[in-house]
Amino acid sequence: MYITTHCPQCEDETDHDLLKEAGDLLVRCTICGAVHHVPKPTETIIPVKAIVSREKESEVGTVELLEEDVCSVGDYLVAECGDEGVSVEVTAIEVGPKRVVTAKAPEITALWTRVIEEVVVRVSVHDRAKTLPLYKKCDGEEFFAVNEVYTIGKVTFRVSHIKLRDGPILRKEGWKTVAKKIKRIYAYRV
Predict the structure, then answer these.
(1) Are 184 and 169 a contacting pair, CB within 8 Å?
(2) In which residue ranges of the chain is pLDDT below 70?
(3) Pairing assessment for the beta strands 76-81 and 35-38 based on DSSP bridges
């Protein structure tokens, strides 16, 4: 295991091999090879309440943050829901009765999050005078691109543009993004 700490020989912050853990840490500098003791880091972990949304269902879990951590809307974290750990994106932060965009860990009363490992992508397919709403459950890292052809069920469509969760719209041919960032895909039937 490596840690980054001050080396008295190099007189700089360098990577060190962890040799022994006891009352303090015995480490060896990876640059000069000097062996010395450093105090154990004292990190306070704060469990923060997290409301974890899975499309139509939500559950209460916890996210562990360090005391000095600053959390922002859009951050990716791991939430503990029972015995399960899931990757989530922070969608809102509560500090007391108000919602903020950024907060220090000790100030946070709750994090509102959504699961990003598996998401539902919403697609509006225009077929002459009507619009077909389609839904595809997929991995959050699956790519979708403008002007590409996809099939959901029996409907084949070509993507005309992609609306992202954070506001922008992808319109140029070949522009792509991952499913976890998509608010809606607009397409026309092929």
Answers:
(1) no
(2) 1
(3) unpaired
What are the start-end ranges of the E strands in 23-117?
Answer: 25-29, 35-38, 45-54, 57-66, 70-72, 76-81, 84-95, 98-100, 102-104, 110-115
Write the pLDDT tens digit of every residue in 81-121.
888 888 999 999 999 999 999 999 999 999 999 999 888 99
Q: What is the pLDDT of residue 89?
A: 94
The three-point CA angle 150-163-102 to 5° equals 130
Entry pTM: 0.66
Find where tokens 């991995």 sit: 139
Please name which of 68, 78, 84 lies closest in space to residue 111, comparing C-alpha atoms: 78
- Please give the single-letter amino acid code of residue 85: G
Q: How many separate helices (H) and strands (E) can be counted in the chain?
A: 0, 20
SS3 for 47? strand
Phi, psi of 121 (to 5 degrees): -95, 130
Integer Rg of the chain from CA: 23
